[in-house]
Amino acid sequence: MFADRAKIFIRSGKGGDGHVSFRRELYVPAGGPDGGDGGDGGDVIFVVDEGLNTLNDFRHVRKYCAEDGKEGNKKRQHGANGADIICKVPPGTIIKDFETGKVIMDMSDKKEPVVILTGGKGGNGNMHYATSTMQAPKYAQPGQPAKELYVTLELKVIADVGLVGFPNVGKSTFLSRVTNAKPKIANYHFTTLNPNLGVVDLGDSAGFVIADIPGIIEGASEGIGLGLQFLRHIERTKVLLHIVDGASVEGRDPINDIYAIMDELKKYNIEVANRPMIIAANKMDAMSDIEKETVIDMLKEEFEPQGIPVYAISAVTGEGVKELLWHIHEKVQEAPKETIVFEPEFVPTFDFSNDPFTVEKDPDDEHIFIVEGPKIEKMLGYTNLESEKGFDFFQKFLKEQGILDELKAQGIEEGDVVRMYYLEFDYYE
Length: 429
Description:
Layout: E1 5-11, E2 44-48, H1 57-60, E3 63-65, E4 85-89, E5 93-97, E6 103-106, E7 114-117, E8 148-155, E9 161-164, H2 171-178, E10 196-203, E11 206-212, H3 227-231, E12 239-245, H4 254-268, H5 270-273, E13 277-282, H6 289-303, E14 310-312, H7 321-334, E15 358-362, E16 365-372, H8 374-382, H9 388-400, H10 403-409, E17 417-420, E18 423-426
């Protein structure tokens, strides 16, 4: 089964926690802090694999998690870093945020691996927090949390030319004649369920890549039929080749069909609809000379004044095909050479505050709670607690850092004392 869309969950690794320990050596009765740092969590990395052409693998495995970093250890030992997770995607894959639908990264032009989610940083061990006022810190920094995201992967095939048209107009037959592609061909709607790619070789290094987009029907842009699933594949094409049943084998009006498809393209993406278009009136082998002339004159009179050239062809016999291919080649050469790339619209952001602190009861008095930590010490250094504004900032700081929650968890009651370095205050709700 061809899969060109998948929803997956990605998670980077959590950073390892810093370690709290103190030197314990013979003849060193008061060794300093020697807790090591935690290892960094693994990254979520996406890589383009030229050998892939479908997102099938992501239909079977939907969770991709990097490894967590390991905790630091005593004797200043650094925890091991977590292993990265590498997701291989086919060329043309776009990564979107699932909730907003916005583009995070277009992998089409990426030759190097791309980090989508970085792993959490490992926390500092307590060896980093020794100061003149705190020579034996009992706290270490926790590792940063993992980063999680649901993303949508979309495959938009990379081709120079997109074949569009109603089902059964001969697109697959045309593709099999002019390229080495081997699409399935039969006389019923939606025979083609995959965007088939083929390379047209005109010799002397002339040629282009062409994609047979499965049959688009009226209402495709609103999700009717299967058309909407495949319209995304024409977004990168530089030239549109509209194949129409010139012989009206199924009783359809070729002019109405062309306008119907053009209308669907405009509803889906006006920029795509405005790209150079060529009309190929197919199935000329099923018409008499007089009928051919009448149909071609009618199509040229309608569309060539709009700047859309019309070619009469037969995908079965090859009539008119060579002339059409050389005209397509000229149009492709005139188009910009770069692959159409979708710019990022969404940058995943994660704000983690993981400065360490400790909350513990005074061993000599259970109504005194001692709170310590590097950020607390810094905050007290630049906050004027004598002013109303400064004290409000101080209270907000305690709440945002989770210190008040931790005090409550340890059973603090009204009237108990909170001690922070040189500061003491009574606790009230």
